[in-house]
Amino acid sequence: VSMQEFLEKLPKAELHVHLEGTLEADLKIRLAERNNHPLKSSTAEDIRRGYVYHDLPSFLALYYEGVELLQTEQDFYDLCYAYLAKVAQQNVLYTEIFFDPQLHIRRGLDFGTVIRGFNAAQEDAERDFGIRSNLILCFIREMSAKSADETFTQAFPYLERPDRSRIIGVGLDSDEMGNPPAKFAKTFARAKAMGLHLTMHCDLDQENTHEHIRQALQDLGSERLDHGLNVLEKPELITMAREKGVTFTICPSPNDVIRPGRSRQDIRDMLAAGLKITINSDDPGYMQSVYMTESLAKAQAAADLTPEELIQISRNAFEAAWISDAERGTYL
Ligand code: ES4
Ligand code: ZN
User: For the domain with range 3-331, which CATH number is right: 3.40.50.150, 3.40.720.10, 1.10.10.10, 3.20.20.140?
Assistant: First the structure.
């Protein structure tokens, strides 16, 4: 079989995708019409032409603008169902999905509106396609520690019942510059004490990224690192990650644009260092609709991955997934 066919058929788990970042231009148009929300562009092509960014802040500006289109429970349902339907076709069997409640709560929406829409879509997608999914609540790192903690408190009833809400962990995303994991130590400690899993984005504070990784792993007890490629520059961080069994969620698509100079050598070096990596999409709606199969194809081409390495990378994702061993056994 061809590499393309092999990648299409490979059973996959995704561990790093921002649901708000899966918002495709055509759904934007439908939401804008439904909610009487003015759009600067009238065609999907036009909208996609406007996706010009060169770093994380310029990307986040586009992402935050798109988020404004999500208003009702139905909107959140449609967003989530579209993503799950799409990746189910790519033989994604399981996915852990980031979402950013603060971007909705600060616009006056209720946490329940967001979560009810997602949960209904997750149930329907599981019924329709068999795809299983859980959610990871992310804190926006350029917002205050107080805002994160208040959001956590607002989410509390849902966090207490992951069997219903499917929120199984908390994460940290958005603008890393000057916003170290330690800023959110209190809220992450609350989450950990409740038995929630922890993960954090780490790689885009040019001055302090190594200290951020150290804090995430050593001080806050993050189980995974999202991106985290800068470990390669510090032997002691490589050792720490190896000893703790940390899994890295790597995303070739944003690496090409907002994390330039990444990907090829880094994927090779991570494997050579004996680190556990997974390949993921991040924000496919804003990045040429590069979902899981396409992300794996990019990584394969960039780092010359063999079928054996791709199978191992796929297994890594199922092994690092925050699911019961009984469920894991159904995939592996
Ligand atoms: C993100 Cl690519 C990326 N990096 C950090 N935070 C994010 N939120 C959505 N996409
Ligand atoms: Zn991300």
Answer: 3.20.20.140
